[in-house]
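Lab meeting, action items carried over

1. Structure of the two-component assembly. Owner: GW. Status: complete.
Input record:
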Amino acid sequence: MMLSASFRQLAVWMGVIALSPAVYAQTEYAVNFQTPVTETAQQVYQLHMLIFWICVAIGAVVFSVMLISIVLHRKSKGVQPAQFHESTTVEILWTLVPFAILISMAIPATKTLIAMADTANSDMSIKITASQFKWQYDYLNEEVSLISALATPREQIFEAADKSEHYLLEVDNPVVLPTNTRIRFLLTAADVIHAWWVPALGLKKDAVPGFINEMWTKIDQPGIYRGQCAELCGANHGFMPIVLDVRSPEDYQSWVAERQAAKAAELAALAANKEWSLDELNQRGEKIFLANCAVCHQATGQGMPPAFPALNGSPMVTQQEPIAQIEQVLKGKNAMPSFAASLNDLDIAAVITYTKNAWDNHTGTVVQPSAVAAAR
Amino acid sequence: MSHATTASHDDLHAAPPRGLSRWLFTTNHKDIGTLYLLFSLLMFLVGGTMALVVRAELFQPGLQFVDPLFFNQMTTMHALIMIFGAVMPAFTGLANWLIPMMIGAPDMALPRMNNWSFWILPFAFTLLLSTLFMEGGAPAGGWTMYAPLSVQGPPSIDFLILAIHMMGISSIMGAINVIATILNLRAPGVTLMKMPLFVWTWLITAYLLIAVMPVLAGVVTMTLTDRHFGTSFFDAAGGGDPILFQHIFWFFGHPEVYILILPAFGIISQIIPTFARKPLFGYSSMVYATASIAFLSFIVWAHHMFTVGMPVAGQLFFMYSTMLIAVPTGVKVFNWVATMWRGAMTFETPMLFAIAFVFLFTIGGFSGLMLAIAPADYQYHDTYFVVAHFHYVLVPGAVFSIMAAAYFWLPKWTGHQYNETLGKIHFWLSAISVNITFFPQHFLGLAGMPRRIPDYSLQFAGFNEISSVGAFLFGLSQLLFVYIVIKTIRGGEPATAQVWEGARGLEWTVPSPAPYHTFATAPDNKAMSAAGMLPAAEAGH
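Predicted assembly:
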């Protein structure tokens, strides 16, 4: 059953490669690049196809000679072997001709490379900070920040539910970007090396802890573009997607205004030292837990001992006094990173309150943002 | 064929001792060659099983068999075992068996060290495999062990580092032995430019090994001190740089790639002339091309790192130097094709594997050329396109050459002809399934699938399914190879000394199986002439 289905598919793709690759770029059996949506990606695609066809042409010549030889020059045909075994002229010829072909490839490649490296004259800058296993985006001109992590539910990964259309390529907070704007990305990482890759943009660059890399893009068409982390960064490297929501500059501006208003309201509440209720903190905390903590400690709170301890029933979590837990979240310990920079007081208070009341931990304890502020 | 080289000396050297002590204490190059080859076959099966775990998990989207961490352990261990445990020891085994016989030497120059080089390996790999059962699991940061991921890794990383040191010592000693043998023990008349190409490629490979294995030892030691002794080579917070690791690693890693392929070039250069019944075309240009590739391998390393954020000038340099490698590699392929041209070919199993090598290695070369183009590499880097590329040069490349060598010299080693029908079935199964496995991976990479992921989005399902079916076919086909090898060792049609009609070289002038000691005295003119190492005029003396 399985075999025959695969061989049917084999026949399909053998047919597919006989035709122009670009036509099939978006099918289930995609054989070539995703449709480029920037000028740079278009150039890279053309370069890629140029080298591909040069290779096909060289291959056609070399393999034809081989095949003719295999068919004609066989002992079973009664041929006598020739005894020639060297020719300096031929050797020089097949050194120089490939060299000339290489130069014809190097010229367009050099042009594209230099254009891609020029990050000057950008209209806006976004700092991307990668960490295990999520992306933080700071819009440097707008003072907007968001953290973006995998949104595919675990049930789908472990075959307990049907897989959604964008399985593993969907996030909780997509990055919203404007079209026709020269955007500069500043890339860094908080823990290990990651790589930010969106194929339709023709961009991939490593996010290196302690260093900042740059790249730029200018996207022509609005749309949703998806990518992934491309550098092995740990157990959940395969679960670190990137989703871009590219809108017209006007729509982008209104999104920015929305984000800024929401942030202002939150800051006002924090400044007023509002007492948050258990329910409010629990609701907020669950989202933060799933986005930041569940990768290791699991949605069930069972963890993956011994590397990632359980939070369900953990003495540190269930004790009344929250200070030890607050400090661990702020400072990190062993494999656990510090969340002092990526989460604000309210978020940390919410997630700690959530862990103290979720699963079997019915402690009823409420941790207020002020307690986190005091511990900082 | 009678030979003075062997008969008179069997009295002086008793037959090999029996039992385990023969293998533990042996200083005989043929015994040590056999040990290396059997060890390599065992590791090929172990590493292959790990690849099948990977392909089973990737058969469908979703996680069915293993968790992501174990998946990463499998990809990491598969690579380490295949590179250091299967391909490198296989080539060293072939060097041990063949180099002394090809240059008319009685044994390797440093026989006791030879014994030690081999016997380090089982311990190194026991250490490495033991990490699978450790708390925290085996190394899971990829065979490249990039910092900081490996600096933060579980205790098994320390065991990996020690195992790499042991493998490195083994390789360096093996390389010293090869150089000492080739430079000192050539029989009179076997000048450098008369050496079989397999000997030439191994001589150059041995220099590469001595140059770069210490670099690998250095970089893993820096990882060790970063882990335990408070240094910050790879930690920006202490003034270090994570990218430094990659520069040092690939300064080892790129010559390592040629360590895995130059001996293969040598093997193919022995086999194609034999079955084309025509001398190798462009012998001296083959030697120069090999040397050029070896030289270039030291100045191209950062093409593995185009996305780390190098200055444009650096990227341009590494792009141009990498493209240059296509020239000498092209020369080799053209020479092989010219050797076949107007020959009188027959297609026994070694020749089939050799032709498949030329064909499929060239495809791997094309994808390599595409990867050299930096702006396009941004798209290919760390995707399945790269996985397809290096598997094309390593499986139908290096591994096929080793299989070709096994079929080619098995009659000489065992004295029995292998079963040609079974050999051909093994070839066709391998050649078809290897393409079903790896060809679709080009498409996956171009369409956007990153490497080293245990699960993928739905658009990649089709080709992954095909690739997994191919992998299991390929894996099962290799059991047939094991069967053929065992069957040939145990018995079969007796082989002649010459074995193949078109075979030229000193190893074909000694009886089959090759006596325990060969060339205790240098080969005489008759042998030299039969080996094609004397001009025809002198042969009559």
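2. GW to write a short summary for the group page. Key points so far: Chain B has one domain: 22-539. The mean pLDDT of chain B is 95.
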